[in-house]
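<purpose> Linking amino acid order to shape
<body> The protein record starts here
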Amino acid sequence: MQTKIVELSYSDKFFAVVSSGKAEDDTIRIFNTKDALAWGVRSYPEGGKKEFPAPVFEVKAPRDHTINSLKWGYLDKYLIYATDRGRIIRYDIEAKKIDDAKDVHKSEIFSIEQTIDFSMLLTCSRDGTCKLLNPQ
């Protein structure tokens, strides 16, 4: 497994890690920040460290899609991610399912950004265009 993206939630309670493997689809793993920090600063009498905390949950990328960019949504309720096939996906964390998926570009989306108030989502694609979208 190779880690490609790490994104801290706006509340700092969680962080998302996107990783991929040769024979696997991309996976988003959500970790509790407090648990990860505690793991990193503990000292153990036996001299070793315990296993890194398990993810709170995991999200598999759509088959045949590679995740290129990921952002947390409003109040950490959503993950918004972009794929190499021009698709934007909004994942509802509480419901643990895809809330919305749209093909917004003809080619790979390599970057997404949100405004600080979460009212706009900007995308940049290999098709030579940038788009301004409503993330809702």
